[in-house]
Amino acid sequence: MSDNQNHGSNGTPMSRRRVMQLLGATGVAGGLAGCGGQSAVETDTQGDGGSDGSDGSDGGDGGSDTPESTATPEGFESTSMASIQELAYVTNQTLPVLPIMEKLAQSFQATDDWSVPSADSEKMQVYWPTSWLPRTGDWTLKEGADDERLTLAQWAVPADSQYNVWNGTNDGEARRMIFDRFMRYNVATREYHPYVISDWSVEESTLTLSVREGQTWHDGEPVTGTDVANHIKLDLYNSAGGGGIGPYVLPEGDMNAVPDRVQATGEKTVEITLEQPVNEDILLSLLAPTRLRAYDEVYGEYVTALDEAESEEERSTALGELTEFTDAEPVGNGPFQWEDADSQRTLVTKYEDHPDADNINFSEAEYLYKPQNSGRWSSLINGETDGSATLFMPQNQTRRLPDHMQTALVSRHWGMGIVFNHDREPVDDVRVRKAIANVINREAAAGNSAAGTGSKVAVTYPSGLTGEFNDQIEGHWLDGVADEFDTYGRAERRTEEAAELLRDAGYEKQNGTWQKDGEPLELPIKGPAGFSDWVSGVQTIVSHLQDFGIESEPIMQDSATYWGGDYVEGDFKLALQGWASYDHTHPYFHFDWIYRSGDATDYWNVPTEYEAPILHEELRDSETIAPDGYISDLATPQE
């Protein structure tokens, strides 16, 4: 995403080293699924083609022009930082959604046989620490330990697992050790590091990627630029141009352009031709989590068929063959290679020719079949497994953990929020939305949702910005302007303010209930019953509304009924959904989710224009604002 130092524009080449200098303070990364729709599921569902957990999120400070001017407003490091603050202020003042809490994922590490960073170490903030930390030599076997195998858990039956990410079914958990990501990202420091992609540059309409020297597939063949190009192409074909880097590469989503726009230009290089100027941070953040799968020896035939398709029908047939292919015994490129799988476990063994093999002092890793949270809790408690990358474990279970099992908290830059159907009365009225915000004690809701684990943090400023866990909001994004933002009572119930808003909207309180034209104010909240932490949070919220005199109840439905029915049909006034773009730190992705995602436009029916006070007069002179243009410009290089 954007960077508030305003470098790397005007067609000047930007090397990896230059980007690194800028990102030392800002950083980028994120889920390949990018800014499209998302499902609020407690799984790792982003990364390589939308099926893998992200290592973190993108970060960075703005770096684009605003709709009004290409000049940087006086007093700002960049126009984009001012635009981010303006969008945050509009969100804060109009509440298209109501952020309630941010999630901190619990991550577990055994310290009896293993040396690992402390729970509060910045190193623990690299996503999926059970797979990243061994690569960097930060998760090692202690001298004299009895165990020589790292034992983890997986959701799918190991024997039924496969490793073709474009197949979309039973992607094996061992992928984390078998395949390497393009890049690595630390969410706490916002530092961004090369991995499979060792170097890159952006020059006007071309993004050039270089492959790490010494990286080989598990059959000994070198990882090449063709392999990297293959993966990017298959992601583009599979997304139909609508996700990841597609909008920035393909003119009007034209899949015929893929072969020309993504090419291996050397044994170790790939060039991607861009359709429009794009902030390099955005591009890199979308590419970073990609886990390289597309070995030419295995996937080359599918790439060729798609590249050479002469009609939509031929392309559809070729894509169908790709998505039906089952890769049960994968040839990987990571520090561990696939060995075998049965009904209960997947076994991988150390690949000695990996560039980071010397950092790893154990020979095997295994993934045990644990399809339920309860089974995973028991395995951590009784020492059957050595850790878990992310897992919700309530306090009544964490109390049973042995002393040698430590728990770290890793930010997901995402969390439960209330979304409104803007086509339904009375929540189409901003005064009602603000009254709801004032009535709810978000700290109480977050605390009850966390069940004593500390894994939920109440949102201080409902604004579309994430980073409560390490002061990224007041200390960075809203530096100097936080006092202008309304908290709506983070840890209190501001009932007087709420009452004034409802009276202004035409309501009056009779017999303890708010009414209008003789009809009570009814605000039921719908959500997924399977999200136990959300259930606890919404019960707290409903009690606050009821105590204030608003008729409310939680309507918790099974996942199929909720996500496949009432939610997508817009059959709600208030509903539960993640209010931010999962695993991203940079505000571009969150504002894009809130204002432009398919969920926002199709299910929440958010308006295209808002009436909101002005924060920065240098940016706009009207209280009418269309967020779309400001969001688009955050993805555009500043001139």
Automatic annotation (TrEMBL):
This is ABC transporter substrate-binding protein. Residues 1-13, 66-76 have a biased composition (Polar residues). InterPro entries: SBP_5, SBP_5_dom, TAT_signal. One of its GO terms (biological process) is peptide transport. Gene3D superfamilies: Dipeptide-binding Protein, Domain 3, Periplasmic binding protein-like II. Residues 27-37, 47-63 have a biased composition (Gly residues). Residues 1-76 are annotated as: Disordered. GO terms for molecular function: peptide transmembrane transporter activity. Keywords: Signal, Transport. It holds the Pfam family SBP_bac_5. The lineage of its organism: Archaea, Methanobacteriati, Methanobacteriota, Stenosarchaea group, Halobacteria. Residues 192-599 form the Solute-binding protein family domain. Belongs to the bacterial solute-binding protein 5 family.
